Amino acid sequence: MSTPVLESVAIEPFLEKEHELFFHTYSRLPVELERGEGVYLYDKQGKRYLDMIAGIGVNALGYGNKRVEAAITEQVRKYIHTSNLFVPEMQIKLAERLLSLTGLSKVFFANSGAEAIEGAMKLSRKWGSKIAADKTEILSLTNGFHGRTYGALSLTAKPKYHEGYYPLLPDTGYITFNDVEDLERKVSGKTCAVVLEFVQGEGGICPVSQVFATRLKALSEEYNFLIVADEVQAGCGRTGRFFSYMHFVSTGIAPDLVCAAKPLGGGLPLAAIIGGDRVAEVFTKGVHGTTFGGNPVACAAGLALIDELLEKDLMTHAEKVGGALRAAFETLKQKHIQIRSVRQHGLMLGISVSRDAGYYAERALQHGVIINATSVNVIRLLPPLIITESEAMESVRVLDLIFSNEWRE
Ligand SMILES: Cc1ncc(COP(=O)(O)O)c(C=O)c1O
Questions:
Q1: What is the pTM of this model?
Q2: Which among 146, 150, 155, 375 is the best mutation to test ligand 1's pocket, defined by most ligand atoms within 8 Å of the CB?
Q3: Bridging pattern class, strands 172-175 and 378-381
């Protein structure tokens, strides 16, 4: 049965079906997809869309990457799933790769970003419980996003995501983003972990300041708490380094735990908690687990993704194309007063605008460019890391046109 909203607006039949069949959690785009190729998606009518959001940061290699497809096919032919009663070869290979890229010492595979955060929270509390019974507090930063499960949601300081879900997890709290004084006020001997995105994604592509990172590192030593890097969105090469915390080495900060997901499974659901020596022995037999985590097909795809990233030097490429995009949007900023600021880290871009960014996302889609609105007035771009400079410039041209036409509407 259609709702009054549906009756008043002409709506595609597939969206009507969606409304009928699913809980109404998502705002879906009015595009009936047929296939993807490279950085483009095609709808059933053959219209081409430049995908500047890449499955919300998942499709780092775009669509139809041959190496990923071959790895998936090869593993599917051997076995799809075994559970963690066994040690799939692909889990070993991917874990070795992640440890060599980070210099950390242990991996736990999960399925989604929120599940990795959840596991990191459990690990942090178990680690804290060995030091003091009340070392249970887990803090995060305002403006961040960590996921929708109860633990991850409790660390996500956005009241709109909390409404109706109270009570949240006890002994969690927020430090004001980049506020060193608030950081000093909030952490204590009770703190077992601070969870943070070094470059906030949903929050509008905002990096923590070097000063904040330096102080966090010092306080983690003073009060003995863990630093957990949420690299779900900024990780796996997107910012030009394999993980975004790697841009902060000069501050001396080194996370004890890193949570990765999104692109990690080459488009299949896969997440990882990667931990250093300090926490290597915290998880013991039976204290944590998952049926699907570390699925062999997803690990094979993830391995192919990392091989491709490294062999094609896509992180350097991301910095180069990201830099060119930033320069182009800075030039647009001179021309259009609607653009307030441009933030960029590799191929993670946030363009602050003077109105609801959804307005631009809607119009860009009509012009065949998929962009995304986050933090209300930030246009977020997370294109595939394989995007060429000329492909990326298509998004600049389209936004230029939309900003110019805005006054005529
Ligand atoms: C930084 C960050 N952490 C955690 C999550 C949650 O990941 P998932 O949606 O896979 O549960 C997200 C999702 O957007 C994210 O951006």
A1: 0.96
A2: 146
A3: unpaired
112 lines ligand 1 (CB under 6 A): yes
Q: What is the CATH number assigned to the segment(s) 66-311?
A: 3.40.640.10
Residue 144 alpha carbon, nearest atom of ligand 1: 1
Q: What CATH class does 31-64+313-408 carry? A: alpha beta
- Confirm or reject: Cβ of 49 under 6 Å from ligand 1: no
The domain segmentation of the chain, as residue ranges, is: 31-64+313-408, 66-311
Distance 380 CA to ligand 1 centre (A): 15
146 lines ligand 1 (CB under 6 A): yes
Strands in 372-374's sheet, in edge-to-edge order, are: 339-345, 348-353, 378-381, 372-374
Angular region, 248: left φ>0, alpha ψ -120 to 50, beta rest: alpha
Q: Which residues pair with 379 in a beta bridge?
A: 351, 373
Specify the ligand 1 atom closest to the Cα of 56.
14
Query: Does ligand 1 have an atom closer than 6 angstroms to the CB of 114?
Result: yes
Tell me if 258 CB under 6 Å of ligand 1: no
Determine the distance separating the centroid of ligand 1 and the alpha carbon of 145, expressed in angstroms: 7
Q: Answer whether 230 contacts ligand 1 (Cβ < 6 A).
A: yes
Q: How far is the CA of 121 from the centre of ligand 1 (A)?
A: 14
Per-residue pLDDT of the chain (409 residues; tens, 9 = 90+): 334 444 455 788 999 999 999 999 999 999 999 999 999 999 999 999 999 999 999 999 999 999 999 999 999 999 999 999 999 999 999 999 999 999 999 999 999 999 999 999 999 999 999 999 999 999 999 999 999 999 999 999 999 999 999 999 999 999 999 999 999 999 999 999 999 999 999 999 999 999 999 999 999 999 999 999 999 999 999 999 999 999 999 999 999 999 999 999 999 999 999 999 999 999 999 999 999 999 999 999 999 999 999 999 999 999 999 999 999 999 999 999 999 999 999 999 999 999 999 999 999 999 999 999 998 899 999 999 999 999 999 999 999 999 999 877 7
